[in-house]
């Protein structure tokens, strides 16, 4: 073996049993190589982890330092550290862009008006419209000939606009124009009779207020 062993080969388990044993003896006596091995092991582990995160697996020859005089042995370590920094920055940038593409929804809590059911409304903005997703908890079965209906409500005038029925599990999703959503200020869930009357039954079970300016 050379005066200073191939530490990366040791790290990657590429040495023969004889060379590995000889390298171990060298490390016992060489503090500088022990320090280099610790730095290289840390950089190699971080680079491998960053490669998996970004979907890029570096080739083996990209990680192996080229033979060089003793004074330049830290060059590959600095290169590996720089690669880790670039990978980490790229991952952070991707996360920021991804978050910008999918903004977090605004959440309004559905409080009981009658009964003990609860729920929430998630409003996710889009291009000129908002996706409204209603989820309820402990909402009793509507019963035969009845159903739950979601409405937009203007608390100041009691003007209401029917959005549609909630599903059997007490959930629903609607796409609503932003201008229309802004002309109301609350979501109402009512229990309706299947009698052909499109008007609100006046039996509200859940209600949530929202602010489109917030």
Q: Percent range for helical residues?
A: 25-40%
Mean pLDDT, all residues = 78
What characterizes the major β-sheet?
A: 8 strands, antiparallel
The backbone outline, from C-alpha atoms, is rod-shaped
The low-pLDDT segments are 57-61, 65-99
* CATH class membership of the largest domain: Mainly Beta
CATH architect. name of the largest domain: Sandwich
Structural class estimated from helices and strands = alpha+beta
Helix and strand pattern: HHHHHEEEEEEHEE
Bin the strand percentage: 25-35%
Number of helical elements = 6
Radius of gyration: 32 Å
Quote the distance from N terminus to C terminus.
69 Å
Strand order of the largest sheet: 5-4-7-8-1-2-3-6
What is the CATH fold-level name of the largest domain? Immunoglobulin-like
Number of domains: 2
How many E strands?
8
Describe the structure.
The chain has 214 residues and is an alpha+beta fold. The chain folds into two domains: 47 residues; 104 residues, Immunoglobulin-like. Helix content is 37%, strand content 29%. It contains six helices and eight strands, in the order αααααββββββαββ. It has an eight-stranded antiparallel β-sheet with strand order 5-4-7-8-1-2-3-6. Strand 4 and strand 5 form a beta hairpin. Helix 2 crosses helix 3 and helix 3 runs parallel beside helix 5.
Describe the secondary structure blueprint for this structure:
Elements: H1 7-11, H2 17-29, H3 31-54, H4 60-63, H5 74-101, E1 106-112, E2 118-125, E3 129-137, E4 146-154, E5 159-165, E6 171-177, H6 178-182, E7 186-193, E8 204-209
Antiparallel strand pairs: 1-2, 1-8, 2-3, 3-6, 4-5, 4-7, 7-8
